[in-house]
Every structure is written in structure tokens, then in C-alpha cells.
Amino acid sequence: MLNNRNFVVGLTGGIGSGKSTVAAMFLAYGIEVIDADQLAREVVNPGTDALQQISKHFGEAILDPDAELNRQKLREIVFSDTAEKDWLEKLLHPLIAELMKTRLENSTSVYCILESPLLLESNQHEMVNRILLVDVSEQIQLSRTLQRDQSNAATIKAIIAAQISREERRKRADDIIENETDIDALQIRVAELHEKYTALAKQYE
Q1: Most buried by CB count within 10 Å: which residue of 10, 24, 57, 79?
Q2: 57-68 burial by CB neighbour count: b if 16+ within 10 A, else e?
Q3: In 29-154, which ranges are E strands?
Q4: pTM of the model
């Protein structure tokens, strides 16, 4: 567990499960959300050492014309080649973890949310007090992600396969949001959890 005064809820779920929608609902209550995907983008901003190493390793074709990382192209490469995925994770995960730790320690809301798709696959779960899972079937993951992204089905299926199983996520979660119904039901569930986490955070102080 991260050594700080803040009560941290880890928000996770497979690709296309609706984590960002849930995070936005907590944000509407004034809860600070630290988004691991956003941190992953920050550590490869133009001019960073990490982006230079990625460009050197994969070639300049991995960059957009404006010298930013082409994340779509990179994702297709690493999820079709385990060795390349391992190389990238060794480079980026320590940088992301350090930035994450700083943001969590500096949070000022009654509790804070760490939104991360790799919360349970990495040691990020050690930074949180409680794990909240947004859960849907793999069929819904695939259909929602195909609608949202420009990835092909094979890449999305590879991402799903690289994450831990749905059963394992459910087993390790403290709280679960079933996100296969409508937005109203989702808002009601988030409201319940907000009350619960506010009470837990006050006990934690």
C-alpha cells in the first residue's frame, strides 16, 4: 500500500468495459481521478527521453508527422510481438509508477481514484486501499471497442487476451459495477459507491 494519508480506490476493468465513463461520474462528485493511460501519454510526450528511446528502437515511422507517438501503430506492434511488449513495459512502467505515486500523494479530494487497465496485472494494486471493477462480457468489450477505436478485431482480441481473465478480476475486486445495462443504473451504482468510499475515507483519516 502506498504510504500516504489519502484513501485510494483502484478503478479497473478490461478494454471497453466503461472505466472512463465511471471515472467521469466520480469526477462529477469532485473526486480526483488519476488516469494511468493519461500518465502513459505524458511520459512519452515530444522531447522526453522515453519517446527518443522508442523512436530509436522502433524507427522514426512510429512517430506522427508532428513528432508525436503514433499510439495506434505502437499498440498493433506490441500486441503482436511479446518481446517488443516486454521491452516497452520495462521502459515505461517505472516512469509511469513514479508519476502515479506523486499524483496520488498530492491528491486533495476526500478520496481519490486510480483508473488503470493494468491495476491487477502490475504492482499498481499495491498503491490502493480498495479495488473497484467495471465488468462486462468479452463480447461487449469487443463490440464497444470496435465502435470506439480504429483498431481491428485481431488487435482488440490480443489486448483482451493479454489482460488477466474476467474471473480473476472478479475474484480480486472488493466492489463490482456490472456495466451491461443503461446509464441510469450506472449512475445509481456510482452514487452508492461514492457514499461508501466517502465513509471509508473518513475512517481512514
Answers
A1: 10
A2: ebeeebbeeeee
A3: 32-35, 112-115, 130-135
A4: 0.85
Q: Do the Cβ atoms of 177 and 22 come closer than 8 Å?
A: yes
Tens-place pLDDT, residues 120-165: 988 899 999 999 999 998 888 888 888 777 667 888 888 888 788 8
- Amino acid letter for position 17: S
**Core vs surface per residue 148-158: b (16+ CB within 10 A) or e:** eeebeeebbbb
Q: Residues 129, 88: contact at Cβ < 8 Å?
A: no
Residues 6 or more apart from 163 whose CB is under 8 A from it?
A: 14, 15, 117, 118, 121
CA distance 151 to 144: 11
